[in-house]
Amino acid sequence: MKAMILAAGKGERLRPLTLHTPKPLLPVAGQPLIEYHLQALAAGGFDELVINHAWLGEQIVARLGDGSAWGLQIRYSAEEQPLETGGGILRALPLLGDEPFLLVNGDIFSDFPFARLRRPLAGLAHLVLVDNPAHHPAGDFILNEGLARSEGPGQRLTYSGIGVLHPRLFDGCQAGAFKLAPLLREAMREGLVSAEYYAGRWIDVGSPERLAEVEALLVGSAG
């Protein structure tokens, strides 16, 4: 199974830190945020990775290279303008192939074991859901008997930015900027999106305060 890291965002909520450094390369406990993903992917048995980039993307390519330092083979999907989540994935599909692939948002930190997702995909997507953080109390989707739903009974949880997608999810999509969530909701109505709950470490690194939270977590773990 191949993997993709979404790394094309401008990180506007992290300014001024991201004015001259792309968000995935912001240092956390001595190394760029994205490198924690690379280490976790390699540990989980993944060896082929696609990374999309836009804002200051040449810095990402220069830093990570071909991925051999982590035992990975990295290919890049460059975007002249950010295509949002859905558009960025659609553009990268020729590099990902016809089989389901692991998707990871580049601006999260988690100790989720990626190897757990190396299994057959029954529908069009499988999402990892987490408890709602303080900055997103309303959550995103409902987990009900192993399926993710937009509406219905059950507790609403937050999409972690970790999941497995089938390329067929993008059938009929046109090139350009569009979000992933509407495609997921459409597939949910057909019962084609499974999900699981993860109670481990997870932080959406969307602000300087949450970046500092990851730093404190990693420094504390090392100590």
TrEMBL record:
Source species, domain of life: Bacteria
Statement: the UniProt record of this protein carries the keyword Transferase: yes
Organism for this UniProt entry: Pseudomonas fluvialis
Domain Nucleotidyl transferase: 2-117
Molecular-function annotations in GO: nucleotidyltransferase activity
Protein name: Mannose-1-phosphate guanylyltransferase
Keyword Nucleotidyltransferase appears in the UniProt entry: yes
Transmembrane segments: none
InterPro entries, alphabetized: GlmU-like, MurU, NTP_transferase_dom, Nucleotide-diphossugar_trans
Keywords: Nucleotidyltransferase, Transferase
Upper classification of the organism: Bacteria, Pseudomonadati, Pseudomonadota, Gammaproteobacteria, Pseudomonadales
Entries under PANTHER family matching the protein: N-ACETYLMURAMATE ALPHA-1-PHOSPHATE URIDYLYLTRANSFERASE (PTHR43584:SF8), NUCLEOTIDYL TRANSFERASE (PTHR43584)
Signal peptide start-end: none
